[in-house]
Write a structure and sequence with these properties.
The complex is a heterodimer of chains A (593) and B (82). Chain A is 67% helix and 2% strand. Chain A is mainly alpha-helical and 593 residues long. The chains are: A mainly alpha (593), B mainly alpha (82). At the A-B interface, helix 1 and helix 9 of A face helix 1 and helix 2 of B.
C-alpha cells in the first residue's frame, strides 16, 4: 500500500500519548493489590456503582470496529447508520436491564455461559463458552490488526511496534488489577474518546457550514450515487424500499433483523458487555448499568457517524500532507487501489472507496498539532478498551466455564486466580497470533466472522425462551441452538448480495435469493436463524421432560420474585429511567426522520 | 475494603485531563498562536475545556470524600453515645 496522508507528529502529540499511557498503567499499578480472590479478579468483587459499570458497559463495546467502522458507515450510508444505535442498540439495552438482569445478576452466575448451565445443562453451556472464547480471541486479533495497519498508514509506525506496545499495555493493567482495572480504564478511555472526537465534529461542521451546509452537500452526493436528495440525511424516509436507500434494506428487514434479532442477540447475551453489569454492587445497580450506558449510546451517532458523513463531502483545501497522494477518491476518502496502483472499480463503474479511512482522514485534515495527538490518543484508547473488554471476558469464560468445569474442577480459589492470569497472558498471545493471521490471510477472517455470525444469530431465542418459558428444556435449547446455526449457514449458502461473487459472500449451495446489499442478506440470515432456533427449541422442549420447578427458582421469570423499585429518586428506578430513554430515542428518530 | 479498592475513579480521570489540558493550553498559547488567530486556536480553547472538566471531576471526588469522612465520623459518635 502506498503511503497515504502520512503525517509527522510534533513533540506535543507524543507528550499527550505518553501521558495517557502513564495514567492507564498507573491505574493498573494502583489496583495491583485489589485482585486477590477470584471474585475480585473476575467480577471486581461486585462492588462498583452503576455509573462506572454503565460507562464500562458502553466502552468495552467501543472498540476500533465502532469508531472507525461507524465513521465508515456514516460515509457509506449517511445518517441512516444511526439505526445501529437507535434501533439496533437502545431497545435491547433497555430490555436486558429491565428484564434479563434479574436472572443474570440474581442467579449469582459468574458468566453468561454459567447461567446457561444453571438454567439448562452442561452441553449448552460448553457450546456457548467455547464459541464465545474463540470469538473474543479473534475479534481482539482483528482489532489489533486494524490498528497496526492504520497507524502504519497514518504515522509510518511499524505494524509489529503498534501491535506489541498496545498488547503489552493492556496485558499489564489487566494482569495487575483484573476486571476492576479493566473497568476503571474503560471509564477513563470513554472520556478520552469523547473529548478527542467532539472537537472533530465541531471543526468538521464548521468547515461544511453547519447541518444545513452538510445537508446541501450530501443531497448533491446522494444524487451522484443514484439516490433521491435526502437519502443520506434522513434516517427513515427512504426505508420504504431497499433500492431507495444506501443501506439497501427495507424497513421490515431492518427492524426485525437488526433491531430485534441481531441487537438483542448481542446486547442481551454477549458476556463481553453483560460482565460489566455483573460487576455492579447491587441488583439495582446491575439493572441500571445498561440504562446508564444507553444515554450516551443514543448520542454517539453525532460523535462517530457525523465525521464520516462530513468526510464524504469535505474537499481538501490545502492539499499537501492531508490530501491523498494519488488524488483519486471522493471528499477526503481515498479510493481503494489495486496492486498496480490504479483505483478499483465496482461492476457499475464506480470507484470503490476505502471507507475505513473516513474518520482517520478527518483527524489528519482538521486537527492541528496538539489536537491531532489527542485525537490519535482517543483512537488508541478505543482500540485498547475493545481489546481489554475481550481479554477480560475471555479469561473469565476460559477459567470458569472451560477450565473449572472440564479440566480441574475442585482446585483452590488461589489456583483459579492464577489460571485467570495465565489465561490473560495466553489470550493476548493468541490475539496477537490472530492479528498476524489476519494480516496474511484476509479471507480467513471474513470466513471466521461469518461462522461467528451463524453461531450468534439464534442465541437470543435460547435465552428468551429459557428466561420466560419455564417449560424449555436443556435438550431443546441445545438442539435449537445447533439448528439455528445450521439454518443461518444454509440460508447464507443459498443467497447472495447483488454484484457479489459466489464464495465467502454466500451462494455456495446455489443462489436461490439475491439481496440488494450484504447488510440485507445479514439481517435476513439472522431472522431465519432466530425463527428456526425458536421453533426447534419449542418442539424439542415439548417432547422432552422439563426440570422440576423447584430447581428453576431465580432462573425463570414466572418462578422469580419481581424486583421492587423502591429507590429514593426517580433516577435510581430502572423502569422510570427506561421510559425516559425510550422517549428520547423516539424523539431522535423523529428529528432525523 | 482496602485503600486500593476505594480508589475513586474520578481522581485519575480528573488528573489525566488536568495534565492534558496543562500541556495543550500553553502549546496553543505559545506555539499554535503563530499560525492561527486566537478565535480558532482549538488547542488553546479545547485545553481550557479539558481543564474545566478536570476541575469539575476533582471537585466532585473531593466532595464525596468529605461526605464519606463525615458519615463515618458521625456514625462513630453515634456508637459512643449509644
Amino acid at each position: 500500500m502506498p503511503a497515504l496522508g502520512l503525517v509527522h507528529l510534533q513533540w506535543i502529540d507524543y507528550a499527550l500519548m505518553g501521558v495517557y499511557f502513564a495514567f492507564v498503567l498507573g491505574i493498573g499499578w494502583w489496583l495491583r493489590r485489589s485482585a486477590r480472590t477470584s471474585n475480585d479478579f473476575f467480577l471486581s468483587g461486585r462492588s462498583l456503582p452503576a455509573w462506572v459499570t454503565g460507562i464500562a458497559f458502553l466502552s468495552a463495546n467501543l472498540g476500533a470496529q465502532e469508531v472507525i467502522g461507524m465513521g465508515a458507515s456514516g460515509a457509506k450510508y449517511g445518517i441512516a447508520t444511526s439505526h445501529f444505535y437507535w434501533i439496533g442498540a437502545i431497545p435491547a439495552m433497555v430490555f436486558v436491564g429491565l428484564f434479563m438482569m434479574p436472572f443474570y445478576y440474581g442467579s449469582r452466575a459468574r458468566s453468561v455461559p454459567e447461567y446457561l448451565r444453571l438454567r439448562f445443562d452442561e452441553k449448552t453451556r460448553t457450546f456457548n463458552a467455547a464459541s464465545f472464547a474463540v470469538m473474543t480471541i479473534f475479534s481482539s486479533g482483528i482489532s489489533m490488526y486494524a490498528m497496526g495497519k492504520l497507524f502504519n498508514l497514518l504515522l509510518g509506525w511499524s505494524f509489529n511496534f503498534s501491535v506489541l506496545v498496545s498488547a503489552v499495555i493492556v496485558l499489564c493493567y489487566v494482569l495487575f488489577g483484573g476486571l476492576r482495572s479493566a473497568i476503571y480504564n474503560e471509564v477513563l478511555q470513554f472520556f478520552l474518546i469523547v473529548f478527542g472526537f467532539m472537537p472533530l465534529v465541531y471543526l468538521g461542521m464548521r468547515a461544511v457550514g453547519g447541518w444545513h451546509g452538510l445537508q446541501a452537500r450530501l443531497d448533491v452526493a446522494a444524487k451522484a450515487h443514484g439516490f433521491a436528495a435526502g437519502a443520506y440525511t434522513h434516517a427513515w424516509t427512504t426505508m420504504g424500499s431497499a433500492s431507495h436507500n444506501p443501506i439497501g434494506v427495507e424497513w421490515f428487514g431492518l427492524v426485525m433483523g437488526l433491531g430485534f434479532v441481531l441487537s438483542f442477540g448481542y446486547w442481551c447475551t454477549d458476556f463481553l458487555v453483560v460482565q460489566r453489569a455483573m460487576a455492579a454492587k447491587s441488583m439495582n445497580a446491575a439493572r441500571r448499568t445498561p440504562l446508564v450506558a444507553a444515554v450516551p449510546k443514543m448520542l454517539f451517532p453525532f460523535l462517530v457517524i457525523i465525521p464520516g458523513m462530513i468526510a464524504l463531502v469535505l474537499t481538501s483545501t490545502h492539499g499537501g500532507a492531508a490530501s491523498f497522494a494519488h488524488g483519486m477518491g471522493e471528499g477526503l476518502i481515498p479510493a481503494k487501489l489495486s496492486a498496480s496502483g490504479a483505483p478499483l472499480m465496482d461492476s457499475s463503474g464506480r470507484m470503490i472507496l476505502d471507507y475505513d479511512l473516513a474518520t482517520p482522514m478527518m483527524l489528519i485534515h482538521l486537527f492541528p498539532a496538539g489536537m491531532l495527538g489527542l485525537g490519535l490518543t482517543a483512537l488508541l484508547a478505543s482500540f485498547m478498551s475493545g481489546m481489554a473488554g475481550n481479554v477480560t471476558a475471555f479469561n473469565t469464560v476460559w477459567t470458569y466455564d472451560i477450565y473449572q468445569s472440564h479440566i480441574r474442577p475442585n482446585a483452590s480459589d488461589a489456583h483459579y486466580v492464577w489460571m485467570g492470569r495465565v489465561a490473560t497472558v495466553g489470550g493476548i498471545a493468541l490475539s496477537i497470533a490472530a492479528a498476524y493471521v489476519a494480516a496474511s490471510f484476509n479471507n480467513i477472517m471474513d470466513l471466521l466472522q461469518l461462522v461467528f455470525a451463524f453461531v450468534n444469530a439464534p442465541l437470543f431465542a435460547t435465552f428468551a425462551l429459557g428466561m420466560f418459558w419455564k417449560r424449555t428444556t436443556g435438550h431443546g435449547a441445545f438442539v435449537g441452538l445447533l439448528s439455528g446455526t445450521a439454518a443461518a449457514a444454509i440460508h447464507h449458502g443459498l443467497s447472495l448480495p447483488a454484484g457479489a461473487v459466489i464464495g465467502v459472500k454466500g451462494g455456495y449451495l446455489g443462489v436461490l435469493v439475491t439481496y440488494p446489499s450484504e447488510l440485507a442478506q445479514t439481517f435476513w440470515t439472522a431472522i431465519i436463524a432466530w425463527v428456526t432456533c425458536c421453533v426447534v427449541t419449542v418442539i424439542i422442549s415439548l417432547l422432552t421432560t422439563p426440570r422440576p420447578e423447584a430447581e428453576l427458582h431465580g432462573l425463570v421469570y414466572a418462578l422469580t420474585p419481581k424486583p421492587t423499585d423502591n429507590a429514593a429518586t426517580w433516577l435510581q428506578r430502572p423502569a422510570v429511567l427506561a421510559c425516559v430513554i425510550l422517549a428520547l430515542t423516539l424523539a431522535l428518530n423523529l428529528v432525523f426522520f | 475494603m482496602n485503600a486500593a479498592e476505594n480508589l475513586d475513579i474520578r481522581y485519575p480521570i480528573g488528573g489525566l485531563f488536568l495534565v492534558l489540558g496543562a500541556l495543550l493550553v500553553p502549546y496553543g498559547w505559545f506555539v499554535q498562536s503563530a499560525f492561527t488567530p486566537i478565535s480558532s486556536n482549538i488547542d488553546l480553547w479545547w485545553g481550557v475545556v479539558m481543564l474545566v472538566f478536570s476541575a469539575l471531576l476533582l471537585a466532585l471526588a473531593h466532595a464525596a470524600r468529605l461526605r464519606d469522612a463525615r458519615t463515618i465520623h458521625s456514625s462513630e459518635t453515634f456508637d459512643k453515645e449509644s
